[in-house]
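B., you asked whether I could sanity-check this one before it goes into the benchmark set. Here's the sequence:
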Amino acid sequence: MQTKTQNSQFITLITVFFFWGFVAASNGIFIPFCKSHFQLNQLASQLIDTSFYGAYFMGSLILFLSSELLGNDLLNKIGYKKGIIYGLTISIIGALALAYVTGTNTQSYAFILVTFFIIALGFSLQQTAAQPFAISLGTPETGSHRLNMAGSINSFGTLIGPLVVSILLFGSANSNAIPNIQSIKILYLFLAGLFTLSILIFNFSKLPQTNIPEKTDRSPKALFSLLILTAVLLIIILLAIFSPIHKSWLIVSALLFVFILLISSYRLSQKNPNQWGAMQYPQLVLGMLAIFVYVGVEVSIQSNMGALLKLPEFGGLHESNISSYISLYWGSLMIGRWIGALSVFKLSKTVKNILSFVVPYLAFGLYLVVNHIKGNEIANLYPYTICILLLIIASLIAQDKPTKTLLVLSIFGASAMLLGTLISGNIGLYAIISGGLFCSVMWPCIFSLATAGLGKYTGQGSALLIMMILGGAIIPPLQGAMIDIPSIGAQYSYLLPVTCFLFLAYYALLSKKILKNQGIDFDTKVATTH
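And here's what the prediction gave me:
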């Protein structure tokens, strides 16, 4: 591990974070195209996202299986740099296959789903390698700061992606023309080119291999636990397709089983850590639950916002008029990550405090400009500046300390969601949208805390954490099921995000205690470096 961050190396690394954000924007265009072109219903068109989430889970599982068969952590063997390059290569294969099938006379939706799965398999390997790589390019206790910076670049890619892709497909950002199949082919050839450019950047850069030469032990108990989880989830999916059981009960069953299995694994590993690999570390297992909940709540707040905005007390808006609010949520993630990214730079306390007020409003201004170009109404979004001020206050309280940041933002997030369930109108709406502000820097905090002290198991732990992106496929439909219950409805369904934020606050307190018992105290180390 390096004790000093190598700026040129880190800048090279975060380019791939930008491409993840940029590519993610294309899905929002491709889904309605497939719905129209293949005459699908809404559920069938959403299988594109299902392919992505499923690929992250399966990709991490395959990586774990490979490590078990080799008797060594695969990422430790090949190094993080090569892991990213191999992941990009897989994504190129998927993008080229997608471009090919959309360029033929007979297109197959099933084959398109397969190609999306392949692209996301590459993303899974890239993220599994890039997250600990970013942490390793400097002192571990400041790893969350580098992930914040990388996340801010990712959010910037997500922000400008829709604009660039719209110009590529339609010729102008405001065009309402329906994309044709040839445009889709050009789009994914362009994306394959971006992936290739990334490989060239990484291949010829002076990034270190940053692998851990120490050989890891086999982890048959952890593998058995994960295979049980996979088998049960597959059974639940089959029941959802072929059985008359109400899908809401199956979703609840999946959620409960994830928690029961991981908590049981945690307790068993504490009694006898042998053959558990990375899962012998309590911070990792509990971090898996935290990532599951975090991704779930981040996606769920936005995914169910359309139903909220249809309510008369929240404006009674049609789907065609909600894009500015949905984009504000994702813009909020960028705003929060831009604040978090300040910690990467060596700034005096005075300068950093000033920029903590200036930078988020610059980010908000960039969001307004992009949405104005896209033709969205922005005048009604100005009061949101108050929510941004609350995030600035929360950040100043947290003082860049990972556990304290996670705790403070979780409390602010829970409070915002609770306010949204109690108050209607713009106050309640902006409170719920502000969930994006408070979610913004949670991922790097959880990731750095969960992988702290894993040593030779860091790569394996990273794969397990990426696997828990699965939360984005379970928690959002659970909130949707709550919305379908008349006595709950869209507004009160946001009590589920309240619960999620409270769990993350509990995790922050618990992880601090666990790491301190192991002689690891990130908050104290970060405080001594400022």
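One thing to flag: The chain is about 75% helix and 0% strand. Otherwise nothing jumped out at me.
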